[in-house]
């Protein structure tokens, strides 16, 4: 069975979506739509997409897609999701899902009321290093887990031109670091370590050219007792040939071993009392972040074809947003927030 996909959006990140769709055998990438006609046309030409549009409803009427892939800034998502629901298409929507949680909840509830397939394009959990970390955690080779920490250091947030050449709307987001970037790590931490019980946060803005926060620390307490730290600063980089590949470095400490992820996607294991050794595994250095967009979309295709649930459904994503809201509330009040 072949599923017909139409994409809405031709901005920076859409290139990774369209490249991935063209490599999934069960998919026919039929059309792209963008308000900017020249951008829609050039994107269609670049990715071999046969049709381009500037009007979403006209595209839906002509193409009759099985899947609508929404790859636009978050302020546009609610109206586009309702249009997609009315069309009967399955819906994949980029994150942040909405400007705020009440809006996201309305979108999810509307999709559920209409029995629409609705997934959030949360690709970080599909990055190959996190898949391999999950395998190692499942093998219990690290022993009892104590702590996890991640130092986010992409180094792309300095100066008045920060983010403008890639995703300029970042500069206007009043909630930025956690809402746009940290949400990935909330989801990834839940994927690797389970439910989050309590959070404490201290956030700040370092670059006066943007509206929202761009640095801070967040402490997590997981339901199983593990403690987590997310230490983020978008202005500082880290030692990597591509600082946006992993966006930083992770350390997981257990009773038997310590596991380290570096900025090149390499994993290192150090048994207690011994020296660190590289843990080798295979991954493809193509697309975005180890081809995680391809892996994410391939997963969603299989869910659709085989009527399977997905852990990145709109309903599941609301739990991430609850944690995000608790982080901002903790920063506002200076208190530990229980979920």
Name of the CATH first level of the largest domain: Alpha Beta
How many strands in all?
15
CATH architecture of the largest domain: 2-Layer Sandwich
| Cα-atom radius of gyration | 20 Å
The outline comes out as globular
User: How many strands, which pairing sense, and closed or not: the largest β-sheet?
Assistant: 9 strands, mixed
The amount of beta strand, in percent, is 15-25%
Q: According to CATH, what is the topology of the largest domain?
A: Dihydrodipicolinate Reductase, domain 2
Which stretches are poorly predicted, pLDDT < 50 over at least 5 residues? none
Q: Calculate the terminal CA-CA distance, rounded to whole Å.
A: 42 Å
Mean pLDDT: 97
**What is the succession of H and E elements?**
EHEHEHEHEHEHEHEEEEEEEHHE
| Total individual domains | 2
Query: Could you estimate the helical fraction of the residues in percent?
Result: 25-40%
> Oligomeric state of the chains?
single chain
Protein name: Gfo/Idh/MocA-like oxidoreductase N-terminal domain-containing protein
Domain GFO/IDH/MocA-like oxidoreductase: 130-242
Domain Gfo/Idh/MocA-like oxidoreductase N-terminal: 4-120
Pfam families: GFO_IDH_MocA, GFO_IDH_MocA_C3
Structure explained in plain terms:
The chain has helices spanning 14-22, 37-47, 56-63, 77-87, 101-113, 128-138, 177-193, 292-306, 314-333; strands spanning 3-8, 27-33, 51-53, 67-70, 90-93, 118-120, 145-152, 196-204, 215-222, 227-233, 248-254, 257-261, 267-271, 277-279, 337-338. With 339 residues, the chain is of the alpha/beta class. The chain has two domains: 3-120, NAD(P)-binding Rossmann-like Domain (Rossmann fold, 3-Layer(aba) Sandwich), CATH 3.40.50; 124-283 and 320-338, 2-Layer Sandwich (Dihydrodipicolinate Reductase, domain 2). Strands 14-13-12-11-7-10-9-8-15 form a nine-stranded mixed β-sheet. Strands 3-2-1-4-5-6 form a six-stranded parallel β-sheet, with helices on both faces. Strand 11 and strand 12 form a beta hairpin. Helix 5 (101-113) runs antiparallel to helix 9 and helix 7 (177-193) crosses helix 9 (314-333). The longest helix has 20 residues, at 314-333. The N and C termini lie far apart (42 Å). The relative contact order is 0.15.
